[in-house]
Amino acid sequence: MLKKIDHIGIAVASIEEARKYYEGVLGLTLAKIEDVPAQKVKTAFFDIGGVWLELLEPTSPDSPVAKFLADKPAGGLHHLAYLSDNVANELTAAKEKGVRLVDEVPRGGAGGMEIGFLHPKFTAGVLTEFCTPKG
Ligand code: CMX
User: Fold this and answer.
1) Using one digit for the tens of pLDDT, what is the confidence trace for 57-76?
2) Atom 44 in ligand 1: residue holding the nearest Cα
3) Phi and psi dihedrals of 4, rounded to 5?
4) Phi first, then psi: what are they for 66, rounded to 5°?
């Protein structure tokens, strides 16, 4: 079952540059910076009313976020992540409804989460992530 929006992923070329806007203009507080080698990204999290903004900076030229930025150099909305009580069940249910999966099984993501993505061609254009705290 989906519970809420957990986070909004935003692709940026540089977290150091982008955080000037989120901190300096919007007045948000940086909660943490975390490398996620499995996803080839560095992440920065800001809490806004119980929803995280997750800045995503590629750490490798073959990162999915590097590919996104190649098409959209200014960056922008990369994905919406829904908190679920069971990522595997969400993936199975979506597949049964004809949605192409990026992840057939959950994998590790930022913040100790299990995550899984649906392909954006099957999700009305917005890349969809499901996430569940591990354990
Ligand atoms: N949002 C919406 N559409 C997107 C997209 C995104 N983030 N990324 C790619 N697309 C679209 C492209 O615009 C393209 O559309 P057109 O064919 O109309 O031009 C299409 O998807 C490309 O599809 P593809 O060739 O099958 O896939 P790509 O090689 O471009 O990769 C994707 C896209 C989503 C499969 C890949 O980025 C992926 O596997 N993402 C999941 C993992 C991820 O994003 N990790 C980083 C974040 C991790 C974290 O939050 O911790």
Assistant:
1) 999 999 999 999 999 999 99
2) 64
3) -170, 170
4) -65, -40
